[in-house]
Amino acid sequence: MYIRPTTLGTTNLALNDILSSQAKYNTLSEQSSSGLKVSKPSDDPTAAKSILDVNASISQLNGYLDNINVTQTELDTQESTLSSLSSLIEKASGLATQAANQTYSQTELTAMKSQVDLVLNSVLDLANTKYNGNYIFSGTNTSTPAYTVDVAGNIAYKGTASTDSYQRYVQISDGVFVPINAPGDQVFGSYDAATNTGTGLIGTLKALSNAMGAGNNAGISGSLDNLSNDLNTALLVRTKTAAISSKFELTTSSINTAVTNLTSYKSNLEDIDLSAVLAKLASAQVAMQATMSTASKTLSGLSLLNYL
Amino acid sequence: MTLVSSINIAHQALLVSQAAITAVSNNISNVDTEGYSKLDVNLASVVNYSYFAGSPIATANALSGVELIGVQRASNAYLQNYYWQENSTYSYLDKYTNVASSVENSMNELKNDGLSSAMTSFYKAASDLNSDPSDITARQSYISAADNVCSVFNNIATDLTNLSQSLVGDPNSVNSLSSSEISSNVDNVNNFLDQIAKVNYNIIKTNSSGNTSSALLDQRDTLISSLSLLMPLTVTTSSSGMVNVSLGEHALLKGSIVSNYLEVKTGDATTPAIINLVGKTGNLVASNVNSEITAGKIGAILDVCGSDITKFTISGVLDSLNTLASEFADVLNNIQTGDPAGDGTTGMCIDGASKTLIAATENIFVANGGGTITAANISINPTVTNDPYLIAAARVDLTTGVDYSNAIGNNSNMTLVLDSSNTDYAALNNTTIGDYLSNTVSKVGTDVKNLNNNFTSQDAVLKEIKAQLSSATGVNLDEELVNLMKYQRAYQAAARVFSVCSDLIADLINLGK
Q: B415 and A171: CB-CB below 8 Å?
């Protein structure tokens, strides 16, 4: 269709052309300076949704990594404590084996008893290990020392009993909560002074000490078996701790992979291909110059007035 | 044939050329006037009549020169009407896209201060608190992260509400309407109607006095164009040369009389502004013609502030945010003080003085000012802000009779909080909190993108019509210069004829001496 050109129409057309080529240039130059092709949701609604989802995932994964890092130190503390505990148990076993020889006088046995008592005190110190201000063997009663010795000589567990919900959980991936603390009462046991009975390691050490004090050979020999059981209990808990640590290591490496993948996915979604954008920018600049030069020729040069 | 008649013909030609040059100079001087329609000079050879028996008969071979039939204003009624119609749609999409972009900017989701990043920080703080539930610093960060979520909700809601109120006023405060955009636009419509009526009257007056009223016609077309930016119009021209303007079935303007004015009244939350038609004395003629105002700026404002779920509306976005805010608050409050799993357990907070566990009774989120929780009023319970120990990080079964008062390291409740970010909720269309938010953002983005696309194509349509209209009625300077020369030469030639005839007559007179 023939359109009769009009002077105002031509001027407006030239103006529109200049404006639209400038707008195109501006969009590209904004993209190249920000490095983003999606700066608001309407630029690409689908990508915007994915970017938000990926952002949330990445931040969640980094949160899991933080959790693991913080918890790992507590697990390390727990493991070294249990390792010291094993040495103490072995030391007590050595004393018990020595005493069971029946060649020692009561004076010597009394000296051994005081060594066993020292071992017991060390065990209690270990049981009250703190990490980051929290007693790690007290279950969820984290501000309560796991063991206290009262005036009567009772050694009672003050933490959450392993029969109750004693566990503290840490989240290491979606919906996966790992219990990180060991059951203190199972590892260490307790002692009741009134009935002179005890359970676990503390019970055994107390019985050993009492047997040594009384020169009770049968009691000393009996303690040997119990000590080996207690050592097994400590080793079992230590193994569990190590298992959690290795689970953390695996999870850490899989989270790192996931974060890397998600980051590169996000970059694909929102980052510009700089070389492509710069090439487009250059061609948009050429187009803009061409439009302007055409416009200036049309508006000033192409008029009959120049030839009259 | 006489020499004198030749002189008369030349005289006529001089006058006609002058008139033509006047028209051309008018065209040239208005070359940059928007809305100016060029004047066309219509010339014809004079038909000579000879009178026999009282009735005039045209005689073909009688030569009587040129005459000016008229100076006509170039126009194309069809294109002009089409232009007004598309202009309304253009202005509708322009306004709609503008408002929608403002909404998108208010949400600001892809920047680092949006709602999704506030939510992410909140869950990060929850995770930290989960790692060390008795730590007061972790509790404080958790509360400030939750407070930040509230502030972002509040800010977006305030922005959107302000936007809506600047357009249609606040339905709850009648006085706010008069300062709103729709009110000033309705005033503009009524002003334009008055002006068009006045121009109509002037056109009739000048027509009857025999003058051309092309400047008035231009003025009227420009006024109608301005009016078409505000609302959809049906324009018809009456035989007398006046235009009638109507909105659908309702006549607004008949000739020089405005039959109905627009009036805007405050409505309710779903229809914040209602447009009525009123007569000259303010008597109600038709109530609520909102559904007929489908285009123009007013149409866009009515639609974007309305509650049609098939369209992008401010209230639609606000509703989604309200749903999200209220569900988010309910979920976390239920974890705090309720029993979300239904297993008889209780959320436990810490008594700050004795550092022992007690059952949590204070909610985290409350509605500022009471009522149901919305995006606008969600806030942190001030009691909890003052005592971060009141956050329930622990969850135990109190029915077992076990003494849990020292179990401040229990973090079972925080695991529920963390789990809530991966849980689908029925109130959120069976999606998670994060998904519901990103879906909302993506929907706003899609709507804005569609509106942008529609606007761009409508812009192209309007430019095309404008080009056609300008092609039919606009001034081309080169054309006018050619015409100028043409009429100049015609004038020179006629003057020549005049002088030749004058010489001849002088010769004749000399002959007679």
A: yes
Which chain B residue lies closest to A163 (C-alpha atoms)? B402
Contacts of A71 in chain B (CB under 8 A): 131
Best mutation target, A75, A140, A176, A271, to test chain B (most B CBs within 10 A): A140
Helix axes B136-168 and B77-107, enclosed angle (nearest 10): 160
- Indicate yes or no: CB of A141 within 8 angstroms of CB of B409: yes
Q: How many CA atoms lie within 13 A of A66 on its CB side?
A: 16
Q: Give the residue from chain B lying closest to A51, CA to CA.
A: B110
Q: Which of B304, B329, B357 is the last residue of a domain?
A: B304
Secondary structure element (H or E) that encloses residue A188, with its range: helix A184-188
Q: Which residues constitute the domain of residue B285?
A: 174-266+271-304
**Residue B242 sits in the same domain as residue B351:** no
Give residue A6's pLDDT: 86
Determine the residue of chain A that is closest to B480 in CA distance. A304
pLDDT digits (tens, 9 = 90+) for A223-271: 999 999 999 999 999 999 999 999 999 999 999 999 999 999 999 998 9
Residue environment code for B35-54, b if the CB has 16+ CB neighbours within 10 A, otherwise e: bbbbbebebeeeeeeeeeee
Residue with tokens 């996966």: A176
Q: Is B134 helix (H, G, I), strand (E, B) or coil?
A: coil
Q: Look at residue B133 and tell me if it is in a domain.
A: yes
CB contact under 8 A, B109 and A39: no
Region A101-118: mean pLDDT is 89
Q: What is the 3-state secondary structure of A47-67?
A: HHHHHHHHHHHHHHHHHHHHH
Residue A206: pLDDT band (50, 70, 90) is very high
Choose from B406, B419, B464 for mutation: most chain A CBs within 10 A: B406
Residues of chain B with Cβ-Cβ distance to A143 below 8 Å are 134, 355, 406, 408-409
What residues of B are in contact with residue A178 (Cβ under 8 Å)?
none
Contacts of B445 in chain A (CB under 8 A): 40-45, 48-49
Indicate the helix (H) or strand (E) that contains B332.
Answer: helix B314-337
- Write down the CATH superfamily of domain A53-265: f41 fragment of flagellin, N-terminal domain (1.20.1330.10)
**pLDDT at position B55, please?**
60
- Judge: A45–B443 Cβ closer than 8 Å, yes or no: yes
**Residue B427: per-residue pLDDT:** 93
Cβ-in-10-Å burial (0-12, 13-18, 19+) of A207 comes to buried
Residue with tokens 């359109």: A3
Divide the 513 residues of chain B into consecutive groups of 10 and give the mean pLDDT of each group: 80 90 92 88 77 57 75 88 94 95 88 87 91 90 95 94 91 85 94 94 82 83 94 88 89 90 89 91 89 93 92 93 95 94 91 89 92 94 93 90 85 90 92 92 93 94 90 89 92 92 90 78
* Residue B262 included in any domain: yes
Contact assignment for B110 to A169 by CB distance below 8 Å:
no
Judged by DSSP in three states, B114 sits in coil
Tokens of B210: 């025999």
Q: Which residue, chain included where needed, has tokens 């009123």?
A: B278
- Give the per-residue pLDDT at A5: 82
- Residue B383 and residue B496 share a domain: no
**Rounded distance, CA B389 to CA A28, Å?**
52
- Across the A:B interface, residue pairs with CB atoms under 8 Å apart total 195
Distance CA B414, CA B383 (A): 20
Q: Is residue B468 part of a domain?
A: no
Residues 6+ apart with CB under 8 A from B5: B64
Judge whether residue A66 has pLDDT over 80: yes
Which residues on B lie below 8 Å from A44 (Cβ)?
445, 449
Q: Which of B383, B395, B382 is nearest to B349 (CA)?
A: B395
Q: What is the DSSP letter of B47?
A: P
